[in-house]
Structure prediction request, 665 residues.
Amino acid sequence: MDSYTTKIRELSAALLEDEKVDFVIGFKQGTIPMATSPHIARTPEQAQQLIWDNNCGINLANYLTNRKEKIGIIAKGCDCRNIVTHIIENKINREQVHIIGVPCKGMIDKAKITLLFDEEITSYSENNETITVKTLSDEKNIDKNEFLKSNCITCTHRNPVIYDELAADLVEEQVIEDPFPDVRRIEEMTADEKWNHFEDLLKNCIRCYACKNACPLCYCPTCFVDESSPQWVGKGQDTTDVRTFHYLRAYHCAGRCTDCGACVEACPMDINVRDFTRKLNKDSFEMFGWEAGLDLSKRPPLDVYSPDDPDDFIK
Amino acid sequence: MKFITIDKKDWAKGIEKSRETYRLFGPVKDKNGFLIKRLEQDILPDMEYHDSIMSAKSILFPQTEKMLSTTLDDSKKDHHIMKRDQIDTTPRAIIGIRPYDAKAIQLVKLNFDTDDYRDPYWCDAYEVTTFVGLAINKPGPFDFSTSTGTGPFCEEGLDILLADLDDQFLAKVLTEKGETFISACGFDTIGDEKESSALFDVLRKEAEKNIVSHIETNKLKEKTILELHEAPFWDDIAFSCINCGTCTYVCPTCWCFDIQDEVKQKDSVRLRIWDTCMSSLFTRHATGHNPRETKVQRVRQRFMHKLKYFFDKYDQGIMCVGCGRCVKSCPVNIDIREVCNIMNSYEKQD
Prediction:
């Protein structure tokens, strides 16, 4: 990944030196193992803090919403798909963004790695596909591919879909024969089993809203959970209110979600929020042949009308 | 000072015995780590845990707490008159609370129990609670508690401090409440005072030596509020923040709450719910005006409150006990240690 970092710094510094952009948004090294932090580089010197590794799972398109400046952005496949969605939804103009695309081979699942140890992880390093993780009394070398984030395992758009420059050569795309086994497993459950599955999924939710705030799609000026006159949803831990938040948020993302996994990455309680959005992605794909964020010229399926719609009720 | 040695073989029996008089709370392994929860029948506190995702603050200050209730049914007596519900005053014990969390409860107490006002919900819960601490022999890499006026063996706010000695616990009984709890467990093997005290000292020094994370707070007091408020670094600190409430909810010292009325058919309740200064709704006025409309204002508020306003108001150090939870849980790795050091070392340029 060092070659990625070198190239990202070089391209970003050049953009800033030539004043082609006002700043570059990327990642900088985190202060703890397995962490990075979104970073704004305003000068070529600040661009030297940019890095790239297997912990860049947050979606940087989230930092573009409604900005007016000319922006350089480091974007992996899913970030690019959300930039496309942002452009389609008028959250940013194509001309405003200079995309440094990063072909991606997947980010790692920190929660899964953390569970390998009884102690806290004190150091993390990576060498190609091998990751070395240490605690005070233990050390393990693990294969990155066995610890990919679950959305990366089924990703078929690792390469940036739009870009102005690339930080590395394009990578081979995965061919996934069965992209939705997890959703099918839930679909096959009985009503009671489904209910219990989702109750268990949400039981530790603390309503911090990290999932929606990390999501580039959640840019409403006032989220329905924050409506106060009148108020739409209760704010406590009542399960009805917790469910309402998660169900409605998922529906707001229908046909728009790129399955970037930022919601899960951000959740402090490791709730697999994708159990909701994935079902909607599957339906979008099966009913409309749609995957979000691939084409600047196409609007998402739920806000278009087509005269040759196969359903009679709409004609 | 009284010391009691507890053979780990007798531990479960003693804890079970205490249930006759106490409602127990403690660390329980959950899906993604440990939580401090009510210990239901047959569940023992997991004393092997190193840290919990959420702190023990919710035992006294639940995320959602019913304050008052009434009926809207006009035919009923006292309809529309909000009254406090009967509360459970059974003694509680939090077993295995970490010393920094116990210290945090003392900081929260500064807000809920003052000369002018006593919050009945929090104070009533506090009064019936016994705090049975578990010292930290091996502090984790994010523990900076020795920089915040507490530490792995700090006794402040505890009734008992337990040290884990592999096959036994050595209990230092610190208060009368502690004494009562130990008796309720039936633990009565008195340890030699001099020897035990010396052992605690050795373990404490060893643990404190292993703390690798530190912050500097020595210059925060002398800076003016405006100097820090107007400092140029807030934009960069706040850039990555997504304004979720994670840092405030995992924080053992964050005490802010919202009050909400909810009605279901004829039942009306008034709830107290954790609030977070990271949310724009936190400060939105009824007029629609919001004095902290932007993200950077909210991020600044959080750090200024913890590291400056609190410090100035109470003169009890910073409003942080160095548990490191916010550092670990922040989705974008905003690190209070870094922010504190930036604030502490900031010199205004004229």
About this structure: Chain A is about 30% helix and 15% strand.
